Amino acid sequence: MSCRDCTRTDLLRRAVAEAGRGLPEIEPGMPLPAGTGMTRRDFVSRTAGLALAVYGGSALSRFALDDGIAAAAAGQPANQKVLVSVFLAGGIDSLSVLFPAGDPLYYSLRPNIAVGQTQGTPFAEDSRLRWHPTAGGLSTLHSEGKVSVVPAIGYSNSDQSHFTSRHYWEVGATDRGLRTGWLGRYLDRVGTIDNPLQGLSFDTTLQPALATVKMPVATLLAADQYTFAPPGLTAHPLEASMFQEAANIGAAHAVSSDAGLATAGKAALASHHLAAGLGAFAYGFKTPVPYPSSTDPFPHRMAGLAAMIAAGLPLRVATITSPGHFDTHATQATAFNSGLQLTSDTLLAFQRDLESRGVADRVLVHVWSEFGRRGGENASAGTDHGSAGIGFLIGTRLKGQQLGSFPGVTGGLDGSGNLRSTADYRGVYASILEQWLDADANSILPGGAGFQRYSLLK
Amino acid sequence: MAATAPIYTGPFGKLQAERLYWRAGFGPRQGDAEKLSKLGLAGAVKWFTRPTDTGLLGPDPHDEKGRALAPADAVGHDHLWWLDRMVRTKAPLAERMTLVWHDWFATSNQGVGQQQLMLNQNQLFRQNALGSFATMLLAVTTDPAMLIWLNGNQNIKTRPNENYGRELMELFTLGAERGAYTETDVREQARALTGWTGSVTKGVPSAFVLDPTRHDSTNKTIFGQTGNFGWQEACQLCLGHAMHPSFFVSKLWSYFIPTPIDATTLKALQRLYSDRQIVPVLEAILQHPDFYNGPRMVKPPIVFNAGLLRMRARWIDTSVWWSLCQAAGQQLFYPPDVSGWDDTRWLDTATFRSRWFIAALVQGASSPKTSPADPAKLVERSIQYWGFPTVSAQTQTLLAAFAKAQLARNQAPATVETAMRRLVATSPDLQTA
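ok -> structure tokens follow
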């Protein structure tokens, strides 16, 4: 390749991308620029148009490659439900998020870090509780009837190790050895073999809740960040064809009887499926409502997710980690306030985005954390690991009523000073699987029949 | 007759030598596999397990501006410093076993917060890499980075911290849910381990010493034995536990062979481990039929990266690798948690992308001056570029078809050839060994 060509192509691509009009087709098979008024049908047909060139390999013709995503998109019902799982890492302090302003014991247990009695906004369902001042977004959505709060969620004999408890939540069972995620097992039952978009992890590596046995799932940083131009290098003129060929080679090995080759082949194939399925998203997307501006990737990831759902991409579940470090052992307020503010504001923007795009009825957001924190503060103006914590469901189809009830600080703490749970996380999972995803919860969650169900939807 | 581990009796050629090089080291440089295969299986395995020269090849590492690395201070330079050793080592297994011990006793600087302490621990792993596991365990137990990481320095007789005592048994010596120990043993172990102090304040480590006033010197009962045990006994009791050898050999096996160990081999390897030496067990694993006959393993990201650099005879001349390798799922000195990296989940769509970038950046912007407009020759040249690794016929056929199609589109042969170099490096053939 000549350097001049390279530079020219690069400049051309960049200039057009900056104009927000997508990129010109510089190679056959490259996605067309994204129109801003792109319809679902347009999108699907463009995605289908990306079917790989199969170079004379008859053995390959049976790999429909990117047809899988197009078929999944075309075949999904117009009201295909999507579950978005948002993880608050570190064990968020539920007694600050929805704080018991009416409980004197709360103030004597937390002389330095309790939230002031008149701060925040009242929680209409329970006069003892108030929303933290930084949780205004959640409070607003709750007042609109779009939030079901689980004020004391957990499980019996709660494990206070981050790793262990998080693992239990991810696999949907208190089983250290379970290797598949609860959402992964759902996808293994209902997913398709050639659509990695069905389970999306917006992260650097796969969120374990999505770990499947047979169905492909995908990991990406954000809708517009799954591009393959190597950082710091001028784009190779054949970058797109090269990537397609890597998928061709991957496809040939994906069916290998050798487990290692098959794994590597499937990864190459799923990567191409994902990039092709995202198509024009590589060049950016438009968002109808403002999101918080932040150096944290969370708002941008959520905005991209809303755009993907609205574009009719065949998503079923998506996982994402919220901003902030909620493992607040010391000077809790600093990290807690900024993390919850950004999370709550972004969740509100995401909901407004979905509503503005007319797809809000298709989406349920599930917010969780691995445990709550100790009732009493520690000597460092922080709180240590506890038991029951807080969770939320957000969506327009919800009844918007709390699941379980707040047990009170007075009378609600166990012998170690940790909040007792009034709702089991597996009961909430089972209710989501059955009522939102129309799945058989008992075959997905070990011992599933034993957990109480909650009526979630209107 | 006592059980002995079966030994591979098939051909030992370039293919087998390549697998040994990738799993016991960081892949062959050009010509290495052919040379190694001439030693035969036993000779080749001994070349790895009994290195005579543990020095380094090539020039010292530097960043893109030619500056020396600062592994104790600069972010990511700890990773680059070790990657450099993997690229330059003359004793690949010693370095690879250092990586195994880093995963086995997984300590993260996330919790330690002092790169020099992590480097000191790394040196401990390297010194004992092919020695005695008993010596290693005792050294690790009082290693400052480990004392911080698993709260051994906060384990006081009045407030025992069970963190290290639990992982000592669960992850390091006995294994969970095998009936090897009880929750009472965890608490008693914690008491035996009390007394260590030391910390890092504002980046400066203090002395890490045993403070007798913080040690619980009353009797403990561990695995049914009672005595005034201290940290050394805590370790010795684990090493002497009837279920330790089976845990040790099975776990070691899993780093080198992806299929489960069979009962006969398990028994034989335990016998080889009778004096807690690592090398006899390793030699049996590296000569086992399952090693050569079984399925391929996905290379860990750091092995993939080091291996591509070795194949290109390139040294550390940029700092780009640490963040790329982090994105590929493996930043050295930062394992995800105390159970280490998950060797069954290296590849997903995000980590595949990062490996694509690693391959691209090892290649750089270089391009052949002239290339033949001949698909077969382009296939051969693009494999030669990486030092002639074995590439399956299936992959080669597809590479040739790609070349043919691109040449038919009037793409310049040199452009096609550079694309094919990437395709070789990222193929399932080179992602696995």
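Chain B touches chain A through 55 residues (CB under 8 Å).
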